[in-house]
Amino acid sequence: MTSPTKPLYLLLATQFLVTFSLMVLIPVLPLYLEQLGKQQAVSGFYSALALSAPAVGGLLSAPVVGMLGDRYRYKNIFIAALVLFVLSLLGMAWFQSISLFIGARFLLGLSGIGVVLTLFFSRANIAPQGHQLGMQQQAISLACLLGPLVGGYSLQTIGMNMVLTVTAAVTVSCLLALMWLLDKDILQPQGTEAGSKSTDKSQFSTPIWGWLLAGAFSQAGAFALVVGFALYMTQMWPSPNVASQIGLIHALAWCGTFALAGFWGRRNTRGFGAQSFAFGALGCGLAVVLIDFVSSLWFIAILRIIQGGFFAAQSQSLFLQISTLSPANQQGQALGYAKSAQVSGQLIGPFAAAFCFSHFGASSVLWLTAGLFIAAAILVSFLLSVQQVNLKVKTQ
Fold it and tell me: Do 286 and 171 share a structural domain?
């Protein structure tokens, strides 16, 4: 049997590449679309469509990919998803039509590679689940930090098509290595036989649906902050360098996420996943709302780093709890729904932020974001209190 650390590091590298490919275009997407449009102005509709296409594709495919994970070996699903992912990268790199480029981004989300990787990190027998999910969050955070930096530099130098092509080539290398290294023991789902088909018709318990709603609230808050923070800074802290300031502060927030992802993972391994999610969501909300009361950019940067550190608890704690609460032969489907819930939040958050900004001003965006995070914390705290009551009833 191969050493489990090798496939773990390759899976982390693959997670980095998947997230990197999404983030590398984020800061320069309108400019890249103008290049595809032969330097003609591209409407905001096409930019919004290109930005949301992976999320829409992922929203559609996540439950299906999750159900497939309950019925077939992860390795086979992983290979299929990664092949589609590579094809989408090559399409984004070399298609010269805006419509085809958007189609390639839609295929990136439709491939379901994000769900498959979450299945691996949630259920593979490589390390404790909390530790695996913590390392996954670190890989995502590092890609979110480096992707925009590389994208902004590359568009006017080596070209975005070269970056995407190299990313696809490295991904293929990871795929070939993982096809060789991944074995049945590492991929064995806990509590089931690989390849067995589900015959249990039981439905998900009520707490799982509560957790899905909490995950949607938390992710809506995160993506409302992406849009809302830029709007807030532009209006409340105007300066010739505001764009650079926003980018730097965003990068610092991801540094905080990267730094504390391992801490939350170790804490979750000790059985505190639900508490970590609630505490992290509450910390995010409080850190965001305090931004509206400080009078220095340094304090804003510090608060965003703190918010990033608390945010590191969110996704990994959500996936751990969903995996723990769901039936053994329906964990893939449950994790797929968790991904879809997060994507729903990603789509709703920015629109909610834009609405609040246009009707209630810049400060309202921060309060909206804080409210979404705090709502997630309250919901999970309620689920924990109900769980405690049920335990007391059973022991009496």
Answer: no
d(CA 142, CA 393): 45
Q: Considering the domain boundaries, does residue 53 fall inside one?
A: yes
Average pLDDT, the chain: 86
Question: Tens of pLDDT along 343-368?
Answer: 999 999 988 998 999 899 989 999 99
Q: How many CB atoms lie within 10 A of CB 396?
A: 5
For residue 204, the model assigns a pLDDT of 66
Domain of 50 in residue numbering reads as: 1-186
**Cβ count within 10 A of residue 198:** 16
Using pLDDT thresholds of 50, 70 and 90, give the confidence band for residue 84: very high
How many degrees, rounded to 5, is the angle at CA 108 between CA 48 and CA 322?
Answer: 100
The Cα–Cα gap between 44 and 34 comes to 11
**φ, ψ for residue 234 (rounded to 5)?**
-65, -40
Please determine, for residue 192, whether its predicted confidence score (pLDDT) is greater than 60: no
- C-alpha closest to that of 68 among 198, 183, 180: 198
Q: How far is CA 87 from CA 66, 75, 107, 150, 252, in A?
A: 21, 18, 8, 21, 32
Q: Kindly state whether residues 75 and 100 are assigned to the same domain.
A: yes
Residue 380: CATH number of its domain:
1.20.1250.20
Residue pLDDT, tens place only, 135-144: 999 999 999 9
In a shared domain, residues 212 and 182: no
**Residues 261 and 331 placed together within one structural domain of the fold:** yes
pTM, rounded to two decimals: 0.87
Number of independent structural domains in the chain: 2
